[in-house]
Amino acid sequence: MRKFLKHIHLWLSLPAGIFIAVMCLTGAVLVFQQEIQRAVSPGFYFTDRYREVKEPLPLDALVCAAAEELSGEGRKISSVTVYSNPESTVAVGVSGQKGVYMTIDPYTGEITGKGAPAGRFFASVRSLHRWLMLTGTGRTVGRTIMGISSIMFSIILISGIFIAVPRAWRNVGQWKQALSVRRGKTSSVWWFTSHRAFGWCCAVFLLLMSLTGPMWSFSWYRNGVAAIFGIENMNGGKHGNGKGTPRTPVAGQPQNTASAEYVFDGIDPGIWMKVIAGIKGLEPEAVSVSLKKETATVVTAHHHARASDTYRFDPDGNITDVQKYEDLPASRKLMGYAFLLHAGLWGGWIVKLLYFIACIGGAYLVISGYCLYVRRIKKMPQAVSTTRETPDRVTEGKRPNSRHRE
């Protein structure tokens, strides 16, 4: 069995190793994306004006300032996110683009940044991580390659664990030997012992990443994971009205007739102010409120990083529906939990640091594995030549004796 697992471990590692190294190195960068962006441009995310000004400006004034900045670019405001933290800036999203496009100082209305810091860099890293930076129809090919490589990585890790377990697994001395890195007469000793030791140290975190990764590549894998946990209807519909049924729009609803300068992409910031006031009464622990045309996404202090409540409101700003995260079906929560495990968002900066180390260790496992294989290939001709020379040497050694006897 151990010999069979060694073959599996080797022959899966050879073709998938390059892609595994790419996944690990790009993953190491993405683990601390938020921290890096905030360190590069703290003014984009935070302001110190709250020490001088006690109350922020009205939201409609902030949105108007953002609209004036965007008027020459032909862009429309699609969302605004406000935070309970007085140090945070207000984030603005625009139509046709994901994420935060610009931020505003809530106390002065000043534009504090446009375009997420190092946004293009991290977008490229994420593209390389997910689909090898391929575009168009090639993106599907890249996603498939990375998904298969992730599955192969899981098998490689599991087989490596079984191979590395000492035969006398109850012997503490053998475990110490398995976890130690040694130098020998040749570099093979270092490569082998470090490969085994680092594999043990990183295996758990690498498995969490490799087992969850294919959920973004293959629907059959995602459905299979859901079936394991007894979750049905992974292709369920969108948010309902709190009872699990779609909300039907009421015919003839009055449309807001605010002046054009306050209406952007069908949105009235005055209505947003009314919605925020209503949400604050219902969610006193709200950490952030992200407002769109008809919905508001609310993150509270007791939510994890991928959880939020959804509020729906009518054109007059009256809240008509509340969808609590706790009431969502398990099928709607699965991908959120998968992302927590995949990105290391479940244990604070300590877990993020462990994930970062594991990603670097995963890349090192690929390098050390290839080095061991290369040295093995180099030794094969020597072994063959030694085998061929052995009979001649034996014969040559016997000739003098035979002549002496004669």
UniProtKB/TrEMBL annotation:
Record carries keyword Transmembrane: yes
Region of interest: Disordered: 384-406
Keyword list, A-Z: Membrane, Transmembrane, Transmembrane helix
Compositional bias of kind Basic and acidic residues: 389-399
A Pfam family that the UniProt record links to this protein: PepSY_TM
This protein's record includes keyword ATP-binding: no
Transmembrane segments: 12-32, 145-169, 189-212, 334-349, 355-373
Lineage top rank: taxon: Bacteria
PANTHER family, per the entry: BLL7967 PROTEIN, IRON-REGULATED INNER MEMBRANE PROTEIN-RELATED
Identification of the protein by name: PepSY domain-containing protein
Native source species: Candidatus Cryptobacteroides intestinavium
Organism ancestry: Bacteria, Pseudomonadati, Bacteroidota, Bacteroidia, Bacteroidales
